[in-house]
Amino acid sequence: LERGLPTLAICRGHQVLNVALGGTLHQHLPDDEKLLPHGTPVLDESVYHDVQLAAGSRVAKACGTEVVTGRSHHHQAVDRLGDGLVAVGWSPDGLVEAIEPESSPGWVVSVQWHPEDTAASDPAQQGLFDALVSQT
Fold it and tell me: Of the candidates 52, 55, 49, 56, which has an alpha carbon nearest to the alpha carbon of residue 118?
């Protein structure tokens, strides 16, 4: 982040970015009955759900839309945001699915879902990788 390197954090990388900046995680999503299923990483059970993106966010610009359908398989997720981060994407249950730094010398985008799983058939997901590459 300090060096301004273009960064696309995905799933665990999304969680690591948040924790590295002082944030916290929901430790086990299935324990919260208010949350939708978000898949199971150990069993590689995935779910698809929409993610509402903040207008004007880097994620929305890269995807070319304000609603994407993401493939998820995670049991942890962002709880309290790390210092300097803002939420820019949410699943229907309100879980934070995308974050970005408020300010950064470089292009930084972080998503909880797995765009690499559907990028070959979903231009919105491919847009994240295209945007990353265009920054280099």
Answer: 49
